[in-house]
Amino acid sequence: MKLLTRIFALSLAVICMMGITISASAAKSTLLSKLSSKSVTNITSARTIKQDLVVDEGKTLYVRNGGVLYVNTGATLTLKGDMKIANGGAVYVRGNIIVNDSSLLSCSGKIKILSSGSVKLDGRLWVNATGNINGKGKIYVNDSFSDIRYRGRITAKLVAPKPVRMNGATYVGGILIVNKQYSLPENYGSGLTDEAYNAYTKMKKASGHNMSIVSGFRSYQKQQNTFNYWCNKDGYDKAVTYSALPGHSEHQTGLAMDITSLSQTYANTAEGKWLAANCHKYGFIIRYPKGKTEITGYIYEPWHIRYLGTDIAKMVYDSGLTLEEFLGVA
Ligand SMILES: [Zn+2]
After folding, report:
1. 50 is a domain residue
2. DSSP-assigned beta bridge partners for residue 69
3. How much distance in Å is there from the Cα of 160 to the middle of ligand 1?
4. How far is the CA of 258 from the centre of ligand 1 (A)?
């Protein structure tokens, strides 16, 4: 057997020297140029898409355990129906996958998006607990981040759509953004949202810590008074470095809270450490991380959390980015 392997390796080397390149995977895979007329097409071995292919409405392309699908450079796989990748199934994307508005791409296996590849998302993407999407290619979120159900892991770059202005507030992929650049109108907000408050209550209970809300919702008017107070005390130039201008405080969204202590040493307490490591599981992020002042406009605030919902909070947490960077508005 060993000799045979050597002979095979030798002949492969000869073929390569002759200028013919064979990739082990492509050599073994067969072409997928048409889908089954049945409602489900099962991929159980290695198959390659070399030309554009459409999964029609009502149909499912199912990459089963042991199945491998290659979407070659220049080829586009358009989902008008659905695509499912089972645990143990894999898709290598060198071309494009387009997920149409009413379609679902559900991944319990692996998707590797290579640098020449992309996934364009108008429909839904489910990254299930065992699902993993990686590679140097990009996932373009054309509509909303809430189209993504996120239980597994994405390390491929998520590209957000452009900011949209609605009733004086700015949203990126459905996420409200408020910072030194983007503001809220004077009449926006009336308290912490039920969702954010309920998530806080659940988190506090699970943590076993006190986690008191030092500051929750702050109205435009209250922020004006707060800013004026610091202005009179320290002068405008200094006040503007730590206090938000009215309309620019994230506390006006009803989605932000200051927890327990307004001191950076809070990060070293057991509670502060728990919050940093776990708040994403309850839908929050530490909004102003350490060393990101240039990007967020704020000093490290280990106490200030922002509610995004569990899926998006985990996405931001896993990305290691600030919200500005994640949303492409840094
Ligand atoms: Zn705060």
Report:
1. yes
2. 47, 91
3. 25
4. 5
Q: Is residue 9 part of a domain?
A: no
144, 186: one domain: no
How many Cβ atoms sit within 10 Å of the Cβ of residue 261?
16
Distance CA 111, CA 134 (A): 6
Domain span at 240: 179-326
Give distance in angstroms: CA of 224 to centre of ligand 1. 15
> Residues 101, 214: one domain?
no
Same-domain check for residues 243 and 274? yes
Domain with residue 311: its CATH number is 3.30.1380.10
**From ligand 1's centre to the CA of 257, what distance in Å?**
6
Q: What is the mean pLDDT of each run of 10 residues along the chain (330 residues)?
A: 47 44 60 92 97 97 98 97 98 98 98 98 98 98 97 97 97 97 96 98 98 96 94 91 90 98 97 98 98 93 98 97 97
Q: Please tell me the total count of domains within the chain.
A: 2
Answer yes or no: is 6 within a domain.
Answer: no
**Token code pair at residue 16:** 């390569």
Residues 268, 322: one domain? yes
Question: How far does residue 262's CA lie from ligand 1's centre (Å)?
Answer: 8
Alpha carbon 127 to its chain centroid, in Å, reads: 11
Is 86 contained in some domain?
A: yes
Report the C-alpha gap between 246 and 222 in whole angstroms.
8
User: Count H helices, E strands: the chain?
Assistant: 9, 26
Same domain as 214, residue 79:
no
Ligand 1 center–CA 53 separation, angstroms: 50
How many residues can be counted in the chain?
330
Q: What is the pLDDT of residues 150-207, one digit of tens each?
A: 999 999 999 999 999 999 999 999 999 999 999 999 999 999 999 999 999 999 999 9
pLDDT in tens, 94-106: 999 999 999 999 9
Q: Calculate how far, in angstroms, residue 256's C-alpha sits from the geometric centre of ligand 1.
A: 7
